[in-house]
Amino acid sequence: MADGTKKKSHFGYFPARLLWAIEPIVQHHRNTEMVRMLDGNVFLAPSQSGGALIGAVHGHAMAVFHAPDAYCSGPMTLDIPDAAFAAAEPPAPVCFNYCGSHYHAEVPEWMQPGTCFVHDAGIFIQPKMRHPQWAGEDNEFQPCLFQRTSSVGTHTIGADFRLKEGSPIDWRKALALAVSDTTAPAGDVLAFSPQLVNLFSRIEDMCWDESPEDRPRTFHRATGNGGKPGAIVLTIEGRPDFVGLYMPMKMTEPQSVSWSFLHEEKANG
After folding, report:
1. Which of 3, 42, 85, 214 is the least crowded, having the fewest Cβ atoms under 10 Å away?
2. What is the 3-state secondary structure (H, E, C) of 232-250?
3. Cβ within 8 Å of residue 118, ≥6 positions away
């Protein structure tokens, strides 16, 4: 630079599957709050316990992961292209059939998204392993599943990538406030939007094996302080590396169940 100072460089990486898991919150934000957080609502931040924290925040919902195998040089805000989310989606296993039974086999690791790298220069998603046909190539040769250089000048949300230093909002404060709030008494009636709860469906699916009995329980803990309802804290059984928040709706008298569901009508004639 002209004044002799060195420009600060920003760099980070994290499991690509987490990018795919938080996409619903990103798209919900883009559809409802276009005038807020124009630099993106995905954040990446160092963790005091090692690794990094990655998540997405919206005015009515938030999801945060702690990834021990992630890294970032400092807090940053990311505006992710739609195509990157698609590239980060874990491919479905291939279904085989034999004598009336179904058998599922994972696709090769060179077809599976592994690590997402973000830098001032752009975003890159590497597969879990390099394709065997390139095994003899130099290590500098690393074809990736997705790449996009950072936008310069004009920027199109959903098509371009952008990295900005700092977090989009003080999401830690919102999380700390919700966790410290008094838990609502058992039996209280909650009013919430199913649309907000559905934003976390990919995250729950990511924690689930094929066996129905292995599906983890999801807990929705209502909070409140001084009679004022607070955020609903969402946690998943066996996954201390994740926490979510979403806001309840304004309370009113709960709708009763219609009598027509409770009384059997006799057949005519």
Report:
1. 3
2. EEEEECCCCCEEEEECCCC
3. 10, 11, 12, 13, 44, 72, 76, 78, 161, 163
Residue 117 in tokens: 């790298």
String of DSSP letters for the chain = -TTSPPPP--EEEEEHHHHHHHHHHHHHHHHH-TTS-TT-SEEEEE-TTSSEEEEEEETTEEEEEEETT-EESS-EEEE--HHHHHHHSPPPPEEEEETTEEEEEPPPGGGSEEEEEEETTEEEEEESS--GGGTTS-TT----SEEEEBP-S---TTT-BEEEES-SS-HHHHHHHHHHSEEPPTT------HHHHHTTHHHHHHT--SSGGGPPPEEEEEEEETTEEEEEEEEETT-TTEEEEEPPPPP-PPPPPPGGGTSPPPPP-
8 A C-beta contact, residue 131 and residue 114: no
What is the pTM assigned to this prediction? 0.86
